[in-house]
Every structure is written in C-alpha cells, then in structure tokens.
C-alpha cells in the first residue's frame, strides 16, 4: 500500500515511521524542509535510506501534492497543524483524487463531528483526551467510593 | 449579513453595507485588529475564530442571508462558506480567493462565487490593454457561455462584411455593434466596419475561431 502523509509534526512523523516499518510505501509532504528531522530521529538509518520519501511543499498546492504522489495514494493522512488546511486537503484527496482511505486530524471537536457526519473520517485528539480524562477521573472517584 | 475577516476588504465592505442600511456583523480573530475596528463598528464586530462553529452561531449565522468570507487564508474562506451553506443553510455565500491557484479548490468544494482580486486586476489589464481587441465582458461558467467584445480590425474578414456572410460558427451570435458612441442590435444584413466594437455571445471554447474573423491581417 502507498500512504501519503501531509504534515510531518509529532503526529504525522510518528504515523509515517510506523507505516514504513509495517512495510508500506510512505511519502511525507511538509512545507518546512527541517521537518525531516523528526522522521530521522530515533532511527538507525535516515528516513530516505530506509526507503521513505519526503517532499517539501505547501499542502494546498496541487503540484506539491502530485509530486508527493497523491494520484497513486491508497491512503491519505492530513496531519498538518491547521484544522482548516487538513479539512480542505482531505476533501481534495477524496473528491478529486478519489483516494480510498482518507483520514484527517481535526483538533476542534465541533468541526470534527460535523465533517465526520459529511463522510470524512476525522480523528479528534481533543475529543479523545476529553473522554480519557473523564474516564480516568470517574474511575478514580468510583474506586474511592466517593461518587457512585 | 455576516462578514468573516476584518482586514482592509472586510472592514470596507462592512462600512459600505452598513451605509446601505444592512444589518451587518463582522468576525475578527486578531485581538489588536478587532480593537481597532471596534472603535468604529462598535457592537457590529465580534472577536473570535470565524471557522469555529460556536463563534459563527454566536454571530447569528443561522439567520444570515449572506455570508462573506474575506480572511487572508483560502482554506479558512473555503471552510466558512462550506459550513455556511451546507450546515447552516445560508442561501448566498461569497468567498475571497487570495491565491488564484486555489480557485480550483473553491470550485471543487462547491464554494461559489469565489472572488480573486488578482484575477479581477488581470481582467482590468486585459480590458485596458486588449490582445487583438478582445475583451471578456461576462463569463457565465455554469451556463458555459461568454460575452466578449471585439474590435473590428482594418482589413479583417469582418471589415465591410454583412453579419450573415461572416460564417461565424454555430454557438456564436453577434448581439450588438457599437459605433460612433452609439450601439444597435444588428440583423443579418448589418455591415460591420473597421473601428466598430462588436459584442458577441458564444459557447465557451469558440473564442479562437471567432476571433480570427476580426483580426486585421497585419496582426494575424
């Protein structure tokens, strides 16, 4: 499978590395040339020596997306630090390039929920954190027998 | 009317629309900019990120007749308009397109009309410095029609020809001839002369063919 990841921050780079070690072909696009440092970190060999590819370019530029291989991607991950950028490029991947699997990171729970209803596969770290924190606090309170 | 983005465009639009007695609310996400504009617009401006649902709702998007997205970020403008029309059922949206290369994204995601200042200025330049005297007056993208204005060049096929003899392709029609500061709707018998300006309506794609009849052999 060929996976394209746009946005190589903490999240994008970690997903990229584990997809590559699973044996997939992985291409990463980021506007910052130094973002490759996160891909190299903690590996015995450099990202590119391990077979990953890295393109510098702006997410909204079709030329950059094409250079990174969007037209042959089986999966597309939108993980830049901008919710709106992610939501726009995910829709481009889905509607224009008909990528089968499109996953988009959205920090704002409101937008994440609405776009999920529109058929995008959204992942909302904020919502996940809220649920985990609630569960942790409840578990603690229940364990102490203070709140039933 | 809801305007998102109080930059030069948003602020001036708000002013004009308020003057025309519209109910206008502006949303601005930069605190400093908000404070500056608030001195003039007072309660008509709200502080917040206009791509967040609760901010849009607080500003009354559910009862807006028109949403205008004029922030400096195209992705924000696209999302604001997409949510306005698809989530909140706003009937009319207008988006500013900052980078003309992003126009295709506005179209793909159904946000129209998208207005690009760069494009508008290019059109004006085209109007002032026309190539072979061709000016686009109107593009009806949905209908796939355009209205153009052509100068009749000296010695061109159209110079001295009747409209019916010009052999214009199917899908094109001469709708008026402008001459000596006046204009008229021609018949097939009307004769065109060098120096006339001719308005034509045509199917998109016929421009090249039609243009040939009006270019002076010197320029061709």
Oligomer designation: heterodimer
CATH topology of the largest domain in chain B: Rossmann fold
Radius of gyration of chain B: 23 Å
- Summarize the amount of helix of chain B as a percent range: 25-40%
Shape of chain A: globular
Strand content of chain B: 15-25%
Q: Report how far the terminal alpha carbons of chain B are from each other.
A: 50 Å
Overall pLDDT of chain A, averaged? 94
Helix-and-strand structural type of chain B: alpha/beta
- Class of the largest domain in chain B, according to the CATH hierarchy? Alpha Beta
Question: How many β-strand runs of chain A?
Answer: 6
Mean pLDDT of chain B: 91
CATH architecture of chain A: 3-Layer(aba) Sandwich
Give the helix/strand class of chain A. alpha/beta
Q: How does the overall form of chain B come out from the CA principal axes?
A: elongated
The structural domain count of chain B equals 2
**Name given to the CATH homologous superfamily of chain A:** NAD(P)-binding Rossmann-like Domain
Low-pLDDT residue intervals, each spanning 5 or more residues of chain A:
none
CATH superfamily of the largest domain in chain B: NAD(P)-binding Rossmann-like Domain
Please report the distance between the alpha carbons of the first and last residues of chain A. Answer: 48 Å
The helix tally of chain A amounts to: 6
Task: Provide a concise account of the structure shown.
The complex is a heterodimer of chains A (148) and B (220). With 148 residues, chain A is an alpha/beta fold.
Structural summary, described in words:
The complex is a heterodimer of chains A (148) and B (220). With 148 residues, chain A is α/β, with parallel strands linked by helices. Chain A has one domain: Rossmann fold (3-Layer(aba) Sandwich), CATH 3.40.50. Chain A is 44% helix and 18% strand. Chain A has a six-stranded parallel sheet with strand order 3-2-1-4-5-6, sandwiched between helices. In chain A, helix 2 (36-40) links the parallel strand 2 (25-30) and strand 3 (53-56). The N and C termini of chain A lie far apart (48 Å). The model of chain A has no long low-confidence stretch (mean pLDDT 94). With 220 residues, chain B is an alpha/beta fold. Chain B has two domains: 2-115, NAD(P)-binding Rossmann-like Domain (Rossmann fold, 3-Layer(aba) Sandwich), CATH 3.40.50.720; 127-212, Alpha-Beta Plaits. Chain B is built from seven helices and eleven strands. Chain B has a six-stranded parallel sheet, with helices on both faces. A five-stranded antiparallel sheet of chain B has the order 7-8-11-9-10. In chain B, a hairpin with a 2-residue loop joins strand 9 (172-179) and strand 10. The N and C termini of chain B lie far apart (50 Å). Chain A binds chain B through residues 60-62, 82-85, 87-88, 91-92, 95-96, 108, 110-111, 114, 118, and chain B through 51-54, 73-76, 78-79, 83, 86-87, 99, 101-102, 104-105, 108-109.
